[in-house]
Amino acid sequence: MIIYKTEAEIALMKEAAVLVSKTLTEVANVLKPGMTTLQIDKICADFVKDHDAIPSFHNYRGYPHHVCTSVNDVVVHGFPNDTPLQDGDIVSVDMGVILNGWHGDHAYTFILGEVSDDILQLVKVTKESLYKGIEQAIVNNRIGDISFAIQDYAERKHGYGVVRELVGHGLGRQLHEDPQVPNYGKRGNGPKMKENLVLAIEPMINMGTKDVYTDEDGWTIRTADGKPAAHFEHDVCIKRDKALILSDYSIIEAAEKANPNLNTSYY
Ligand code: MF3
Ligand code: CO
């Protein structure tokens, strides 16, 4: 069942989404080689709790941490661990919060130091594919229009692998609401969107094969060929002419640009 939100509810959801953006900005401020993903987990969990919100991933279906930190060949749902990050790593940080009963859930891929042009291009195209999807997130379009736009750009135009096993989703009082938002599909397919549907759109794009497998921990999703993957996620509200993006990358990007340990040369 698709749940449409009122304007007042969307204002609250924007607060939740922006709290996630601010949390990811905290990460962007301090991220550097040598830091561990468990340290990132603690920074995020503490920041969210200090802002009277709940880190929503913790204990969600038994998830044992507060954020997902997915490094290099890990596509999504990587467990924070005590391995120091290295120059040349890419790390997606995915964070969810509940603020005043409403969920925010989004993700950003950071590049540490020097990487190959191939990796810069992967991160760039993955972020761009998210905006290609968002362009289609308008009243009277169908979910398949978003899916097609992402797949068309990442797969057909750039030759990357689009992960099939995981999808974006509706967002609201629950972390995962209807409808599912695949990153692959056909134009004109799926549910028609009406105003004030809130979606978490989250392309997971692999440099090589689209195939993935799950680690023995039951969560960590890795590329089958060991090549890197990138992941970006925004929370968006369907509107008539142009989606309203509830999350805010501008503060994350400003912090990323100001941090000499992070590579922003792709944008
Ligand atoms: N952004 C992911 C999702 O929406 C994160 C979920 S991780 C989990 O599915 F731990 F909460 F499952
Ligand atoms: Co999500």
CATH superfamily: Creatinase/methionine aminopeptidase superfamily
Strand content: 15-25%
Ligand species: 2-amino-4-trifluoromethylsulfanyl-butyric acid, cobalt (II) ion
The overall pLDDT average reads 98
Provide the helix percentage. Answer: 25-40%
Which parts are unreliable, with pLDDT below 50 for 5 consecutive residues or more? Answer: none
Number of helices: 5
Largest sheet: 5 strands, antiparallel
Using the coordinates above, name the CATH class: Alpha Beta
**CATH architecture label:** Alpha-Beta Complex
Q: Please tell me how large the radius of gyration is.
A: 17 Å
CATH fold assignment: Creatine Amidinohydrolase
**Number of E strands:** 15
* Helical/strand content category: alpha+beta
